[in-house]
Amino acid sequence: MSSPLRYQFPILQESANGHPLVWLDNAATTQKPRAVINAVSSYYENANANVHRATHALSAKATHQFEEAREKVRQFINAESASEIIWTRGATEALNLLAMSWGTTHLQEGDEILLSTMEHHANIVPWQQVAQQTGAVIKVIPLNDKGELDLGEFKNLLSRQTKILSVTHVSNALGTINPVKDMVAHARKMGAKTIIDGSQAVAHFPVDVRDINCDFYVFSGHKVYGPTGIGVLYGRHELLAEMPPWQTGGEMIERVSFSGTTFNRPPFRFEAGTPNIAGVIGMAAAIDFLMEQNRSSLMQHEQLLRVRLENGLDRIPGLHRIGTSSKKTAVVSFVVDGIHGQDIGTMLDKRGIAVRTGHHCAMPLMEALGLSGTVRASLGCYNSIDDVDQIVSALKEIVEELGRERDYGKEIYTEG
Ligand code: PMP
What we know:
The chain has about 425 residues and is α/β, with parallel strands linked by helices. Helices cover about 40% and strands about 15% of the residues. The strands form 5 sheets. Strands 4-10-9-8-7-5-6 form a 7-stranded mixed β-sheet, with helices on both faces. The protein has a 4-stranded antiparallel β-sheet with strand order 13-14-17-16, covered by helices on one side. Helix 4 links the parallel strand 5 and strand 6 (about 135-140). Bound molecules: 4'-deoxy-4'-aminopyridoxal-5'-phosphate. 4'-deoxy-4'-aminopyridoxal-5'-phosphate binds near residues 120, 172 and 197.
């Protein structure tokens, strides 16, 4: 049975390699519902103008939609004020902004930045750059064998030297949901600022930044059924107010003269140049789409599919699931003895099934797991039991076929 939501996503009516498309690469990016596509084209057809600047009607219309979208994001994550919502190109740019603006001005030699083993490169590399510039040191929370953060070690690593805790809400490679509310409470007791990377969370369950009580929260539009090139940085107002701008130019200033420049207030201080207006409007439509759904039924649906997929995979000889926490989103990562993940991905693609293979931009995690990569199937709101059953039966065939080739190869090698 296919999901009723599937029909709202035009691309899911397409075929891939002669088969109906089965999109199981939602952790990389989600497909867009008709409402998002329409909102983007309607902006260009009816409201295209630069925002905040002109006196004419189109600019007023575009500005209204743009600022309405900011308010929508505020409600979506329950921030206190829309001025705490900054538009970025995505989670990567939001994390870079924090590292470069907050990090370079607040960190000193010997200060500690606490990250976790399961971070995406976007939450590692900016901190390495800042550490190099400031002399701060990066500490890393290890994992247990289920692919969960080792919370005992987390507490041992926290100290008065910890100035930043920056961790992902959900692992993009394993799907593990981290207990971020608890972690934030511990970090705050030590006086650390807290950043949560919500890129893999917001599409799958409701997020309340005031309940988590974090200082900053980031995510990308394209992983929550919105457009690419747009993302969000939430920051507590009092922290944003004392942060210097990162990028400079138009829009972010209060007054410019050759004797000096004063800066606009947040959020505008952090939005230099013409923003991705169509992206912002598309993002608002994506949030509307999600908020119109019964989110607890969606969560249940995705969990049901994950368990069905896990049970199916567990019956395939030589296949090992990686990351077996019971608190997971619908991400299933696995390896197969003696068969390269890329070969599996290619053969699934021939059957119209899209998964991701490789290190998933989490090389330190792969290193900690002793793997070069995994095959990752990640589910979204429009996936169905049919999709799950198709990948399971395709994998059975593929593993058998590639396994025969592998064993035949071994025979030739030992005979020769
Ligand atoms: N963090 C996590 C956990 C992610 O999954 C991703 C995207 N794979 C990012 C950060 C970076 O997001 P973007 O490329 O959209 O900036």
